[in-house]
Amino acid sequence: MSELDQASPTLRGGREDVPAGPVRELLAPRETALGGSTVVRRLLPNLGRRMVGAWCFVDHYGPDDIADEPGMQVPPHPHIGLQTVSWLHEGEVLHRDSLGNLQTVRPRELGLMTSGRAISHSEESPRPHARLLHGAQLWVALPDTHRHTTPTFEHHAQLPEITAPGLHGTVILGSLDGTTSPGTTYTPLAGVDLTLRQDAEASLPLEPDFEYAVLTMSGLTEVDGVRLDPGSMLYLGSGRRELPLRALADGSLLLLGGEPFDEKLVMWWNFIGRSSQEITQAREDWMTGSRFGQVRGYDGDPLAAPELPQLPLKPRGRVR
Ligand code: MN
After folding, report:
1. How many Å lie between the centroid of ligand 1 and the Cα of residue 149?
2. DSSP per-residue letters across 60-102
């Protein structure tokens, strides 16, 4: 779904912004309109932070009452260099892609699309649809070694779970404490959905080499002593072996983490590359109808790419 609406290509990645130890940075969301009636709260990229591990894009939406609305309607659009993760708490999203996949993604099922060298897809609330829509849309940057891989779509209805008193977790992508999602990953990663009962207290085991952030999906929780309202994200830095959680009311969190992403990226619209020339080429290929295939069955025209400003980006090396 989610389209980057910034005007110019932006460099991401590299380790110079990754704190060596624990921090508690509260990231404010920015509201952005998507297709249909859906407004999202964008947490990544954020003014203060661009990536958490390979996670480079996080939108949180809902819960919205869409009983009399079209819901989500994101027309066919292209991607390169990334994976998209569709994650729902309420409602459903119908995914179509240029490989011919047609898949309804339901709450707590993983819809994982690996764009590799090129793919296009659409996402829509099916008709009819459930009254409520609540979820998150996330992107994972692919490392240089795998970013030209063959595009694929995976749907995992069964995901591994972790439990502790008052806490229930679903491992969406990557691993937590030795429990690993079946979703394909290309860098060391963690994406975990956590449900806490009111008054629950837990300590989550973390990888000290990973950086982490937590997004509040619902309820009222405290993460490392910081009270979080729904829709806000707390960046946690690295060097942590455990993370204290407390539920002031029933609540749910999304834990995102990973090894700091070492490569510099150029990110524009729906593309992740390594140079502005690559991005320009991808835009041209989409607008001339080559490379990205066709999404069949979507009721509407594909998205047109925005104008690309003439801002040549100097490639920058890795920074340690
Ligand atoms: Mn998309």
Report:
1. 17
2. EEEEEE-TTS--BEEEEEEEBSEEEEEEEEES-EEEEETT--E
Residue 217 makes CB contacts below 8 A (sequence gap 6+) with 60, 89, 134, 136, 193, 230, 251, 252, 253, 254
Residue 9 included in any domain: no
How close is the Cα of 110 to the center of ligand 1, in Å? 15
Give me ligand 1 centre to Cα 83, in Å: 9
What distance in angstroms lies between residue 77's CA and the mean position of ligand 1's atoms?
Answer: 6
How far is the C-alpha of 255 from the C-alpha of 179, rounded, in Å?
A: 14
270 CA to middle of ligand 1, Å? Answer: 7
Domain for residue 265, yes or no?
no
Asked whether residue 216 is domain-assigned, the answer is yes
In a domain, 105, yes or no: yes
Please tell me the distance from the alpha carbon of residue 192 to that of residue 195, in angstroms, as a whole number.
10
- Are 191 and 181 in contact by the 8 Å Cβ rule? The answer is yes
Tell me the CA–centroid distance for residue 50 and ligand 1, in Å: 18
In the reported structure, the alpha carbon of residue 63 is separated from the centroid of ligand 1 by a whole-number distance in angstroms of 20
Domain count, the chain: 1
CA 254 to ligand 1 center in whole angstroms: 20
Query: For position 242, which CATH number holds?
Result: 2.60.120.10
Q: Domain range spanning residue 219?
A: 19-258
* CA of 240 relative to ligand 1 center, distance in Å: 32
pLDDT truncated to tens, each residue of the chain (320 aa)? 344 444 456 666 667 778 889 999 999 999 998 866 788 999 999 887 899 999 999 999 999 999 999 999 999 999 999 999 999 999 999 999 999 999 999 999 999 999 999 999 999 999 999 999 999 999 999 999 999 999 999 999 999 999 999 999 999 999 999 999 999 999 999 999 999 999 999 999 999 999 999 999 999 999 999 999 898 999 999 999 999 999 999 999 999 999 999 999 999 999 999 998 999 999 999 999 999 999 999 999 999 999 987 766 544 332 32
